[in-house]
Amino acid sequence: MRIDIISAVPDILNSPLNYSIIKRAKEKGLVEINIVNLHDYGKGNYKQIDDYSYGGDAGMVIMPEPLYRAITDLTSQRDYDYIIYTSPDGELLDQPMANTLSIAENIIILCGHYKGIDHRIREHLITKEISIGNYVLSGGELAAAVICDSIIRLIPGAITDEMSALSDSFQDGLLAPPIYTRPANFNGWEVPPVLLSGNTKLIREWQEQKALERTRELRPELLENLEG
Ligand code: SAH
Fold this sequence. Notes:
Layout: E1 2-7, H1 20-27, E2 32-37, E3 50-52, E4 60-62, H2 64-75, E5 82-92, H3 95-102, E6 106-110, H4 119-124, E7 128-131, H5 141-152, H6 162-166, E8 185-186, E9 189-190, H7 200-218, H8 220-227
Parallel strand pairs: 1-2, 1-6, 5-6, 5-7
Antiparallel strand pairs: 3-4, 8-9
Helix pairs in contact: 3-5, 7-8
């Protein structure tokens, strides 16, 4: 998979995309992340990328020309499955969406900044708009990092024990059951005995029951979705 991220503040992305599972996925050649500095496509000597908004509202808007040039420079080189814009009014990112995106070959993620981007780019070039939650960030970079993390860890081989991604919360529509490691007794706090029993069938049953209980208690709306 190849992900091109277009950003006006590319340095924000250095750290979140260079550690742990994402770093290993890059090293294994499972994903290539290319960060495009929008200023490289800016206008004039000052590489201008933003301007005042029509209508007199406060705040700067990213201009269409630099966005158009950055996006078409990429699309002229290869086909993209998705040209994504990160936006608080987009479709909410969830696990099924991450699963769908994780099988794509090439993705562009465009990060907004200031007030956002000229709407004509959204109408004519963007094919998918994603929000990571009902709140407003200063820029799309952290949203892009969240989207990348959620999909890269799903690429087969990114996580060494593949079962590990499959047993995460939401993957089967439920929250994950509680997890424990050694020691079995810490400060007098005991690990549930069934987990020490060595009986795989009983352990699976216990985990399924706990997953259901936790979902019913913490996120009952997930069960409605499952039943509906
Ligand atoms: N004026 C816009 C918000 C701009 S915030 C509005 O009211 O909808 C600046 C940029 O941050 C946006 O262009 C977008 O790319 C990014 N952003 C902010 N909140 C986000 C969220 N919840 N999910 C994804 N991207 C977000």
